[in-house]
Amino acid sequence: MTQLIVIGAGLTGLMAAHTAAQAGLQVRIIAKGMGANHWHAGTVDVLGYHPRDSRQPVRRPLESRDVLVAEQPGHPYARVSPEEMQAGLEAFTRLAQEAGLPHRGSDEPGRNLLLPSPVGAARPAFLAPEAQLAGELGRDEPMLIVGFQGLRDFYPQLVAENLGKQGVTARAAFLPLSLVTRERDRNHVQLAKLLDEPERVAGLGRALRGLVKPGERVGLPAILGFQRHREVLASLVEQVGAPIFEIPTLPPSVPGIRLHTALARRLEALGVRIETGMEVLGFHGEDGRVLWVETETAARPLKHRAERFLLATGGVLGGGFQSDHTGRIWEGIFHLPLTLPQERSRWFRPRFLDPAGQPVFQGGVPVNGNFQPVDPASGQPVFANLWAAGNTLAHADPIHERSLEGVAIVTGVAAVKAMVGDRAPANS
Amino acid sequence: MHTISWHSVELTLDECIKCNICTSYCPVAEVTDLFAGPKYSGPQAQRFRENGQPHSPDHSVDYCSGCRVCNDVCPTGVRIAEINAKARAQMVAEHGIPLRNRLLGRNELLGKAGSFAPHLANLALHNPVSRVLAEKVVGIAREAPLPRWSTEGTFSAWMKRTRHRRLRSDKKVVYFHGCATQYYEPFIGQAAVMVLEQNGYEVLVPPQNCCGLPMLSNGEFDAAERYHRGNVARLAGFGLAGYPIVGTSTSCTLTLKEEAPELLDKEDPGSQALKQATWDIFEWLRELHAEGQLSTDFRPLSPDEERLVLPYHAPCQYRAHRIGKPALEILSLIPGLDLRESHARCCGIAGTYGYKAEKYPVAMDVGRELFDFVAAQSGAEITACDSETCRWQLEHGTHLPSRHPIEFLAAAYGRYDLERRRAVE
Question: Does residue B335 sit at the A interface (CB-CB below 8 Å)?
Answer without folding.
Answer: no
